[in-house]
Design a protein that fits this description.
Strand content: 15-25%
Structural class: alpha/beta
Shape: globular
Helix content: 25-40%
Number of strands: 27
Bound molecules: beta-D-glucopyranose
Radius of gyration: 27 Å
């Protein structure tokens, strides 16, 4: 029932990218005028303006000394061009730059404002989104360039989340590769394809930390950890923005949702978050900082209230932190109608107040609420918003438009669009990212051998389940321009590999609905086969992503019944889980010999899966979220505090039998530990860890504190940590070697472990490699009791480990007077 209630929301959000007014479908001929770039019009306008010289100098201001400063935004000349243009703009035109609409859709409750052409011509809009075709983008851009008074180009945005036409694994899957270089390449492909279609702004990456699998948007991010999340944030930004933002194939990145959205209480989407300042700075802000540090030029504010203040009107996060502490020079866009939502949040009783609060807090651009359009003029005229504040917001937006080269090259070459899509190297990359994203959770012996990899001739295989031949589902929750016909499903790939005679396919069940007859047919197919592959899980468009929170995390519909009846036959069974979150499947993890988490793998789902199933590739994905045993454990994350009553050394598999077992931080009916820990994933080989060495066992805390740099990219190593990692098996493999740190004796309690490094290492059978990490001072730094990011004296344990629950450790001391 619940799924139906929510599904229209999801459908309507995925429709957003597909709806465009048919009038734009008409191809427009380029007029002679359009051959001139907007800079031309700008130049003429400026030369004709008597106030030109004045406006150029009078509005120049001392530039701040930013911590985060994208060189493209501060390139010589950009600020002068912005000032010159601002000097020419009237108030209405300035406000127009702060307004964004989704093409062809009514904007804002009750306004029904859809006349895109008219608005563009009047200069009432600065950005449009959900136009995905170069000809349509050009047609709209032509109105801005040729017909609006100041010829300011529009910036076209889109939710380019995990690919554009070449769809890669969902971001949670991409993060499970622990391979930022690969993720950067995937984002580059997305940028090439999207920009060829006229899109120059990706509403991505989603860098919200997600620690509760009930929250459907966990699928869209990099999981629970700020260190890994920061690495992935940087990779996405670098991939989208490329070498320089001005290149025609670069996209402006937009890390989102600022901030705390992933901490929605109860995992219920859009719900409020309560986050202490310590946790905000320690856990939720770092991926945003990393994304901006890597050069992201825009940012999206979020829907949720944070400590009672809606994030789209939160001066503390949007101004104090973002502008004053971080020196961000790009612009902030609200999330979809989140300015209008300040009214139901309860901090505004009318649109004017909502617009004023959001604007003064630091939201520069209004996504679809229509409230800036309706109210900013009066708010300025009545003295409630000073015009220089409007100028500042416009300046931030124009900076980005100049840096993207939109003034000089506003149009997209329509002739190159088709050829940019699905290029062979892009498809090969989609296959590799998918292979690296799969996490092998279980691989138990069947007749004395781990079930996987399968022999090349496994006999007849029964392929069962709703996800076995469902191309649309492989595209995940944000499908971009991905098309089902681009997808190779598991059924297609398996049939190609083994021959149709050796594959017996039975759907067995839908995701949510099924019948006993379908299950019986699947059981029959399994009975007649030598081996069973079950492809089960969630229906991505309905059950994952936005507005898809779940209170139950098992297999939906009849799938658990299907699973148990098939497994009861006693055949070897491989279960492949397709999902946007970990699923609580205690029975499966106790009874199914092989289980692979495949997330939603994208266009190359089938070939990537068969590569892994038959051992042509060795599983190397690792979990980026702790996998719960039961929903009651959520929120669940490895870098938790120890508490004053840790349950160390007690068997939590049974209820407490005495007071020593009872008065501990524990459940009486479930272990504390996850089903599978963060960082976990099996391989077809095994690894041994040993011999952890540190370059010193004493460091001065004060000295480390003095070496901290605001940009982690600039920090110098202060400690070398190494360990021997051996491939003890018979297959070549890649291992994700992880480094964790614990600090004890500090002014605030810190987690039992925190990730501070990772590397993907290739190892031949029998090979031992000394894996070395160089740690900078920030590996030991944290937000202390005085709200300072610093290093304090502490006892430190460092693990080099295959996951967050195991590994070999060594210790050192950070010296100095203890707090
Ligand atoms: C989502 C954003 C998205 C925006 C535009 C919102 O509902 O929260 O992540 O970028 O819509 O489509």
């Amino acid at each position: 029932m619940g799924f139906f209630a929510g599904s229209w929301l999801v459908l309507s959000s995925s429709l957003r990218i597909r709806t465009g007014p048919s009038r734009f479908l008409r191809s427009c001929r380029r007029s002679a005028l359009a051959a001139f770039s907007p800079s031309f019009f700008l130049l003429i306008a400026l030369l004709l303006s008597p106030g030109y010289a004045f406006s150029q100098t009078s509005s120049a201001r001392p530039s701040p000394d930013p911590v985060i400063n994208n060189p493209d935004l501060s390139a010589p000349g950009v600020e002068q061009k912005v000032d010159a243009l601002l000097g020419r703009m009237n108030l209405e035109e300035k406000i127009g730059q702060l307004v964004q609409y989704s093409v062809g859709q009514p904007t804002g409750p009750g306004t029904g404002r859809t006349g895109d052409n008219d608005m563009i011509e009047k200069g009432e809009v600065g950005s449009l989104f959900n136009v995905t075709d170069a000809a349509k983008v050009n047609a709209l851009q032509r109105i801005a360039i040729e017909k609006s008074r100041l010829h300011i180009p529009l910036i076209f945005g889109l939710d380019v989340i995990h690919g554009f036409r070449t769809t890669f694994p969902i971001p949670l899957g991409l993060s499970a590769t622990w391979d930022p270089a690969l993720v950067q390449q995937a984002a580059r492909v997305a940028a090439r394809e999207a920009s060829a279609s006229g899109v120059r702004w990706a509403f991505s990456p989603m860098v919200d930390i997600a620690r509760d699998a009930r929250w459907g948007r966990m699928a869209e991010g990099a999981g629970e950890d700020p260190f890994l999340g920061s690495a992935m944030a940087r990779a996405f930004v670098r991939g989208y923005q490329g070498e320089t933002l001005g290149a025609p194939d670069s996209l402006a990145a937009c890390p989102k949702h600022f901030v705390g959205y992933g901490a929605a209480e109860g995992g219920r989407d859009y719900n409020s978050a309560e986050i202490s300042q310590h946790t905000l700075r320690q856990i939720y802000l770092p991926p945003f900082h990393a994304a901006l540090d890597a050069g992201a030029v825009t940012l999206m504010s979020s829907f949720n209230a944070l400590d009672g203040v809606p994030a789209s009107a939160n001066p503390f996060t949007l101004t104090d932190i973002l502008r004053n502490e971080w020196g961000f020079q790009g612009f902030v866009v609200s999330d979809w109608s989140s300015i209008g939502e300040l009214i139901p949040h309860g901090i505004a009783n009318d649109g004017a107040t909502a617009a004023k609060k959001a604007f003064l807090a630091g939201v520069d651009m209004d996504m679809v609420s229509n409230l800036y359009h309706e109210n900013l003029l009066n708010l300025v005229r009545s003295g409630q918003i000073p015009e220089p504040r409007i100028d500042e917001a416009v300046r931030r937006i124009l900076r980005v438009k100049f840096a993207l080269g939109l003034f000089d090259h506003p149009y997209t070459d329509e002739s190159k669009q088709a050829a940019a899509m699905l290029q062979p190297d892009s498809i090969a990359l989609a296959r590799k990212t998918a292979e690296e994203s799969f996490v092998l959770l279980r691989n138990s012996p069947v007749e004395n051998h781990p079930l996987l990899p399968l022999p090349s001739k496994p006999g007849t295989v029964a392929l069962i389940g709703p996800a076995a031949d469902d191309p649309g589902n492989m595209l995940g929750c944000w499908q971009g321009m991905g098309r089902p016909q681009d997808v190779i499903t598991l059924k297609t790939a398996l049939t190609e590999k083994l021959g149709a005679d050796h594959v017996r396919y039975a759907r067995g069940s839908g995701y949510l609905h099924g019948s006993n007859a379908d299950i019986a047919a699947a059981v029959e197919a399994a009975t007649q086969s030598d081996l069973v592959i079950l492809a089960l899980g969630e229906n991505a468009p309905e059950m994952t992503g936005e507005a898809a929170s779940r209170a139950h995390l098992g297999l939906p519909g009849h799938q658990e019944k299907l699973l148990e009846e098939v497994v009861a036959l006693g055949k070897p069974v491989v279960l492949i889980l397709f999902s946007g979150r970990p699923l609580t499947l205690p029975w499966a993890f106790g009874h199914v010999p092989a289980v692979l988490a495949a997330w939603f793998p994208g266009v190359q789902a089938g070939p990537a899966l068969t590569d892994i199933l038959f051992g042509e590739a060795n599983p190397s994905g690792r979990l980026t979220v702790s996998w719960p045993r039961s929903v009651g454990q959520e929120p669940l994350y490895y870098d938790a505090l120890n508490t004053g009553r840790p349950a160390d050394g007690v068997d939590l598999n049974h209820p407490p039998t005495d007071s020593k077992e009872k008065f501990l931080s524990r459940y009486i009916d479930e272990p504390n530990s996850p089903q599978f820990p963060f960082g976990f994933g099996l391989s077809y080989t095994e690894f041994r860890y040993g011999n952890v060495e540190l370059s010193t066992n004493k460091l001065s805390a004060a000295q480390l504190a003095s070496q901290l740099s605001p940009s982690a990219q600039e920090s110098n190593p202060v400690l070398t940590v190494s360990a021997d990692v051996t491939n003890t098996g018979t297959r070549a493999a890649e291992e994700v070697v992880q480094l964790y740190v614990r600090l004890q004796g500090t002014s605030v309690a810190l987690p039992v472990r925190a990730l501070k490094g990772f590397q993907r290492v290739s190892l031949s059978p029998g090979e031992t490699r000394k894996v070395t990490f160089q740690l900078g001072p920030e590996a030991f730094a944290f937000w202390n009791i005085n709200n300072q990011f610093t290093v304090e004296p502490a006892h430190v344990t460092i693990w080099i480990a295959p996951d967050s629950a195991h590994g070999q450790s060594a210790t050192l001391d950070l010296t100095g007077p203890m707090n």
